[in-house]
Amino acid sequence: MLSKAHQANGKLWIALIAVAAAGLWRIPAYGAAADDACKLLTQAEINPVLGGQVGRGSSGGKTVCQWDVIGDTPGPGRRTASVALLTERAYEMAKAPASRFTKTPVSGIGDEAVFGFVPNVQATLAVKKGGVMFLVKVQGFPLDQLQSKEKTLAQHVLAKL
User: pTM score, two decimals?
Assistant: First the structure.
Protein backbone atom coordinates (compact mmCIF):
# COMPACT_ATOMS: atom_id res chain seq x y z
CA MET A 1 0.00 0.00 0.00
CA LEU A 2 1.26 3.46 -0.88
CA SER A 3 1.72 6.03 1.83
CA LYS A 4 -0.47 9.13 1.81
CA ALA A 5 2.56 11.17 0.70
CA HIS A 6 3.14 8.88 -2.32
CA GLN A 7 -0.57 8.97 -3.19
CA ALA A 8 -0.59 12.78 -3.04
CA ASN A 9 2.57 12.94 -5.16
CA GLY A 10 0.99 10.60 -7.74
CA LYS A 11 -2.18 12.72 -7.85
CA LEU A 12 -0.05 15.86 -8.36
CA TRP A 13 1.72 14.28 -11.36
CA ILE A 14 -1.61 13.16 -12.84
CA ALA A 15 -2.97 16.70 -12.44
CA LEU A 16 0.13 18.24 -14.06
CA ILE A 17 -0.06 15.82 -16.99
CA ALA A 18 -3.77 16.59 -17.44
CA VAL A 19 -3.16 20.35 -17.38
CA ALA A 20 -0.28 20.04 -19.87
CA ALA A 21 -2.34 17.77 -22.15
CA ALA A 22 -5.18 20.29 -22.11
CA GLY A 23 -2.78 23.00 -23.24
CA LEU A 24 -3.40 25.06 -20.13
CA TRP A 25 0.21 25.01 -18.99
CA ARG A 26 2.27 26.92 -21.50
CA ILE A 27 6.01 26.53 -21.80
CA PRO A 28 7.58 29.94 -22.53
CA ALA A 29 8.00 30.63 -26.25
CA TYR A 30 11.77 30.62 -25.98
CA GLY A 31 11.74 27.07 -24.67
CA ALA A 32 11.75 25.34 -28.06
CA ALA A 33 14.26 27.66 -29.72
CA ALA A 34 16.57 27.87 -26.74
CA ASP A 35 17.16 24.12 -26.57
CA ASP A 36 18.80 23.92 -30.03
CA ALA A 37 21.35 26.54 -31.11
CA CYS A 38 20.79 25.73 -34.82
CA LYS A 39 17.15 26.87 -34.48
CA LEU A 40 18.16 30.32 -33.23
CA LEU A 41 19.22 31.69 -36.63
CA THR A 42 18.18 31.00 -40.21
CA GLN A 43 20.31 31.00 -43.35
CA ALA A 44 18.23 33.94 -44.62
CA GLU A 45 19.17 35.96 -41.50
CA ILE A 46 22.87 35.08 -41.72
CA ASN A 47 23.48 35.48 -45.48
CA PRO A 48 23.29 39.31 -45.61
CA VAL A 49 25.40 39.66 -42.45
CA LEU A 50 28.20 37.49 -43.84
CA GLY A 51 27.81 38.70 -47.42
CA GLY A 52 27.46 35.24 -48.94
CA GLN A 53 25.35 32.09 -49.01
CA VAL A 54 25.82 29.92 -45.94
CA GLY A 55 25.22 26.20 -45.69
CA ARG A 56 23.08 24.53 -43.08
CA GLY A 57 24.23 25.04 -39.54
CA SER A 58 26.46 22.35 -38.14
CA SER A 59 26.83 21.39 -34.53
CA GLY A 60 28.49 18.87 -32.32
CA GLY A 61 25.45 18.98 -30.05
CA LYS A 62 22.44 21.16 -29.41
CA THR A 63 24.26 23.96 -27.58
CA VAL A 64 26.54 25.24 -30.38
CA CYS A 65 25.87 25.83 -34.07
CA GLN A 66 28.12 27.25 -36.81
CA TRP A 67 27.35 28.44 -40.34
CA ASP A 68 30.08 28.85 -42.99
CA VAL A 69 29.93 30.80 -46.24
CA ILE A 70 29.86 28.26 -49.08
CA GLY A 71 33.02 28.44 -51.19
CA ASP A 72 35.20 30.22 -48.63
CA THR A 73 38.57 28.56 -48.12
CA PRO A 74 39.07 27.21 -44.60
CA GLY A 75 41.38 29.42 -42.60
CA PRO A 76 41.49 32.77 -40.82
CA GLY A 77 39.62 34.68 -43.56
CA ARG A 78 36.73 32.23 -43.73
CA ARG A 79 33.42 33.97 -43.03
CA THR A 80 31.52 32.17 -40.29
CA ALA A 81 28.82 32.85 -37.73
CA SER A 82 28.18 30.79 -34.63
CA VAL A 83 25.80 30.77 -31.70
CA ALA A 84 26.39 29.02 -28.40
CA LEU A 85 23.85 28.57 -25.63
CA LEU A 86 25.43 29.41 -22.30
CA THR A 87 24.86 28.31 -18.74
CA GLU A 88 24.65 31.01 -16.07
CA ARG A 89 28.24 30.23 -15.06
CA ALA A 90 29.52 30.39 -18.65
CA TYR A 91 27.73 33.71 -19.16
CA GLU A 92 29.31 35.15 -16.01
CA MET A 93 32.72 34.00 -17.27
CA ALA A 94 32.05 35.54 -20.70
CA LYS A 95 31.47 38.96 -19.16
CA ALA A 96 34.13 38.79 -16.43
CA PRO A 97 37.46 40.58 -16.90
CA ALA A 98 40.13 38.37 -18.44
CA SER A 99 43.71 38.91 -19.51
CA ARG A 100 44.09 39.96 -23.15
CA PHE A 101 40.28 40.29 -23.52
CA THR A 102 38.69 43.72 -23.63
CA LYS A 103 35.10 43.58 -22.37
CA THR A 104 32.59 46.34 -23.08
CA PRO A 105 28.93 46.44 -21.97
CA VAL A 106 26.52 46.92 -24.89
CA SER A 107 23.15 48.57 -24.34
CA GLY A 108 19.94 47.88 -26.22
CA ILE A 109 20.44 44.12 -26.58
CA GLY A 110 18.46 41.80 -24.30
CA ASP A 111 18.58 42.43 -20.57
CA GLU A 112 22.36 42.60 -20.63
CA ALA A 113 25.10 42.17 -23.23
CA VAL A 114 28.90 42.29 -23.30
CA PHE A 115 31.17 42.60 -26.31
CA GLY A 116 34.55 40.97 -25.77
CA PHE A 117 37.54 40.88 -28.07
CA VAL A 118 41.18 39.95 -28.29
CA PRO A 119 42.86 42.20 -30.89
CA ASN A 120 43.66 40.35 -34.12
CA VAL A 121 42.23 37.11 -32.72
CA GLN A 122 38.46 37.07 -32.08
CA ALA A 123 35.40 38.95 -30.92
CA THR A 124 32.23 37.70 -29.23
CA LEU A 125 28.94 39.11 -28.04
CA ALA A 126 27.45 37.49 -24.91
CA VAL A 127 23.75 38.24 -24.35
CA LYS A 128 21.30 37.54 -21.55
CA LYS A 129 17.51 37.76 -21.78
CA GLY A 130 15.57 36.40 -18.85
CA GLY A 131 16.91 32.93 -18.13
CA VAL A 132 18.41 32.44 -21.60
CA MET A 133 22.05 33.28 -22.25
CA PHE A 134 23.92 32.93 -25.52
CA LEU A 135 27.08 33.97 -27.30
CA VAL A 136 27.33 35.12 -30.92
CA LYS A 137 30.61 35.00 -32.80
CA VAL A 138 31.38 36.20 -36.34
CA GLN A 139 34.72 35.57 -38.04
CA GLY A 140 36.37 36.55 -41.30
CA PHE A 141 35.96 40.33 -41.06
CA PRO A 142 37.99 43.24 -39.68
CA LEU A 143 37.47 43.82 -35.95
CA ASP A 144 35.72 47.15 -36.53
CA GLN A 145 32.89 45.30 -38.36
CA LEU A 146 32.42 42.42 -35.95
CA GLN A 147 30.42 44.16 -33.23
CA SER A 148 27.71 45.42 -35.61
CA LYS A 149 27.49 42.01 -37.34
CA GLU A 150 27.24 40.16 -34.03
CA LYS A 151 24.68 42.66 -32.76
CA THR A 152 22.51 42.12 -35.87
CA LEU A 153 22.58 38.35 -35.40
CA ALA A 154 21.88 38.68 -31.66
CA GLN A 155 18.76 40.75 -32.46
CA HIS A 156 17.54 37.91 -34.71
CA VAL A 157 18.10 35.41 -31.89
CA LEU A 158 16.30 37.64 -29.38
CA ALA A 159 13.28 37.88 -31.68
CA LYS A 160 12.83 34.11 -31.26
CA LEU A 161 13.02 34.12 -27.46
Answer: 0.78
Q: Are the beta carbons of 81 and 66 closer than 8 angstroms? A: yes
Closest-CA residue to 84 (of 140, 115, 20, 41): 41
- For residue 44, how far is the Cα from the chain centroid? 17
Helix, strand, or coil (residue 14): helix
Long-range contact pairs involving 138-145 (C-beta distance under 8 Å, separation at least 24): 138/49, 138/50, 138/79, 138/80, 138/81, 139/76, 139/78, 139/79, 139/80, 139/81, 140/50, 140/69, 140/72, 140/76, 140/77, 140/78, 140/79, 140/80, 141/79, 143/117, 143/119
Please give the Cα distance from 149 to 35 (Å, whole number): 23
- Residue-wise pLDDT for 112-152, tens only, equals 999 998 887 789 999 999 999 999 999 999 988 999 999 99
Q: How far is CA 70 from the centre of its chain?
A: 22
Q: How many CA atoms lie within 13 A of 122 on its CB side?
A: 12
